[in-house]
Amino acid sequence: MRHLLIFFIVFACTSSSVVVGLYLRKVLPEHHLSEQSAGVVRLATGLVATMAALVLGLLISSAKGSFDTVSSELIDSAAHVVRLDRVLAKYGSETQPIREALRQKYAAMLETLASDDPSRLARMDDPEAVRRVEDFQRLVEGLSPRDATQRELKTRALLLVDELFATRWLAILKEKVPIPMPLLVALVLWLVAIFGTFGLYAPHNGTTIAALLVSALSTSGAIYLILELNSPLDGVVRVSLTPLREALAVLGK
User: Fold this and answer.
1) What is the DSSP letter of 93?
2) Does pLDDT of 165 surpass 80?
3) Closest to 60 (Cα-Cα) out of 172, 171, 195, 221
4) DSSP-derived secondary structure letter, 32
5) What is the signed CA dihedral for 62, 64, 68, 71, rounded to 10 degrees?
6) What Cα–Cα distance (Å) separates residue 135 from each residue in 192, 220, 244?
7) Distances (CA, A) of 181 to 29, 74, 178
8) Distance from CA of residue 13 to its chain's centroid?
9) Where are the domains of the chain?
10) 180: closest CA among 50, 59, 1?
11) Buried-most residue among 5, 133, 174, 214 (CB within 10 A)?
12) What whole-number distance in Å separates Cα of residue 176 and Cα of residue 126?
C-alpha cells in the first residue's frame, strides 16, 4: 500500500508539472519561448534527464539484485532443510521428534512468508524467533551418538542448521534494506523539472498532452516496480514460495 501511495504521488507531481508547463507557455513573454531560449533549456534538460536515467538504472539494477539474492537464498534454504531432514532420518528413529519440530517450524515460517502481513514479517527476527531457533539447535546438540557414523551425521546436521538459519537471516536482512529517501526525492524533483520543460515547449494539443501523461505514468510505474522489487517478501512483486512448499511436502517422509 505504501508503494502504491508513492506511485500516485510521483504521478501527481510529474503530471502536474506538465500542466504547469503548458500554463507557463501561455503566459510567458514570446522571447522566453524563442529558439535560442529553447536550445539552452533543452541542453539543461538533457543533462538532468541523463542524471535521472542513470539513477533510475542504478536503482533498478540494485533492486533486481536484492530481489534475486533473496530468491536464491530462499531456494538454498529449501535445499538445506531437505538435506537436514534426510541427515536426521539417517541418524536413527530417535530423531523423529526433532524432524517433526523442524517440519513445524518450517511450516510456520512458510505461513508467515505467504501471509503478506508486514507485522508478521517484522516478527521473524524478534527475540522470540531467535529463541525458537536456538531451542531447535539445542535439540540437535543434545543427540548422543553411539558410533562414528552417528557422530559424523550429528556434525553434518549441526552444520546444516547453521547454514539454514544463516541463510534465513541473510534473506531477512536483504529484504530490509530500503531505498534512501533523499535519493528518491531528488529523482522525483528531477523528473518534475523534466516534465515541466516538456510541457513548456510542447504544442498545446490533445495528442502531445496524452503522450506526456502516458510518459509520466510509465516513469511513475518504473519507480513503483523498483520499490516492489526492493521488498521481495511482500507486496505485488514477490519471490516465489513454490520451492519452500515443495520442500515442506517432503519433510518427515
Assistant:
1) G
2) no
3) 221
4) G
5) 110
6) 54, 46, 22
7) 38, 28, 8
8) 24
9) 2-250
10) 59
11) 174
12) 14
Average pLDDT on 178-197 reads 88
- Angle at the Cα of 72 from the Cα atoms of 68 and 75, rounded to 5 degrees: 140
Lowest mean pLDDT among 9-18, 76-85, 111-120, 143-152: 111-120
* Secondary structure letter of residue 179 according to DSSP: P
Separation of alpha carbons 126 and 144, rounded Å: 31
DSSP letters, 124-137, are GGSHHHHHHHHHHH
| C-alpha cell of residue 140 | 540437535
Q: What is the pTM of this model?
A: 0.78
The number of helices, as runs of H, and strands, as runs of E, in the chain is 9, 0
Ramachandran angles phi, psi of 138, nearest 5° = -65, -30
Distances (CA, A) of 22 to 108, 164, 197: 55, 58, 9
Q: What is the tens place of the pLDDT at every residue in 134-143?
A: 788 888 888 8
Q: How far apart, in whole angstroms, are the C-alpha atoms of residue 198 and residue 42? A: 9
pLDDT at residue 92 greater than cutoff 60:
yes
Environment class of 185 (CB within 10 Å of its CB; exposed 0-12, middle 13-18, buried 19+):
exposed
Residue type, 124: M
CA dist 125 and 171 (Å) reads: 11
Number of Cβ within 10 Å of residue 148's Cβ equals 8
